[in-house]
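Quarterly update from the structural biology core.
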Amino acid sequence: MANILELVNISKSFDNELILDELNLEIRENTFMTLLGPSGCGKTTTLRIIGGFTRQDSGQVLFQGKDITELPPNKRQFNTVFQKYALFPHMNVGENIAYGLKISGKSKSYIDSKIEYALKLVNMDGYRNRAVSALSGGQQQRIAIARAIVNEPKVLLLDEPLGALDLKLRQELQYELIRLKNELGITFIYVTHDQEEALTMSDTVVVMNQGYIQQMGSPENIYNEPENAFVATFIGDSNIIDSLMLRDRLVQICGTAFPCVDEGFGINRPVDVVIRPEDVILDEPGRGQLDGVVTHLVFQGVHYEMEVMAGGFEWLVQSTQIQPVGKEVSLRVDPENIQIMSKPASEDEEAMVIDA
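Predicted structure, tokenized:
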């Protein structure tokens, strides 16, 4: 699958504050890529540079191999869906969808067929003559998406489009967006700070912080194999523990040797260990690798969340099996669920990957 977009050495500053620092990114055709990160990480600026709404200070935006840096937004083969729907209140649903087509000088018959096609795609047949003010927030967002896709863009840019919706509506529209991407064959570039959205919808997740790409990969890879402490803490919950790599496939955690599957970190080298709370198994005292006591318990609906003091570290544990506060337990972790990370080589590197 070929690249449809490439960002080459993109840098951008606002008021002498560096937002993007020589960012490089390749985006494959017909993929759903999500730019994920905290506020101020540079994800929205990246999207606006792609769309032509913000001009980079240096670097190139390549579309199908051609530099489009000088092209204004209306000349790029992209459309954008914003969090604020930006629908015209004086126009009905059909007129909102048709707006871009009319500007392009399309015929009435062509526009009519495209309106019906777009409404069907977003599951809003029969709403063509409805006033925008009569629509719910979720329905308005569907119309905003319909207006964007009716122009048959090569790339659809989405800037936190579900952020203003309640949880149930967000989840419904997440599945709608996946369906639309698969049906239309359009490249989706999606911006969010919501980890669940990114993991649910994306083919590729790009985790950003402080203008840098921290990690890029499939949702499964990002979650299961975080490359640094920032990714491990930003994507889901994690236990991150100062540890010692004794040798290949053996790491000392809280003074106890744990078998692992990682190699190549050296002998007796300080490392960071990442263990997801759902991967910590609780057993009777003496049966696991590290004994401790439950210090905190919260019911989370699908599981119990517990804190266990063991080996001088407060472990976060998620399990469907309840262990009451004060109960003595033993922790066990399977080797494949222990993720080893090198410690930052310098204070600058540590700040880059940890500070949010």
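The chain has nine helices and 20 strands.
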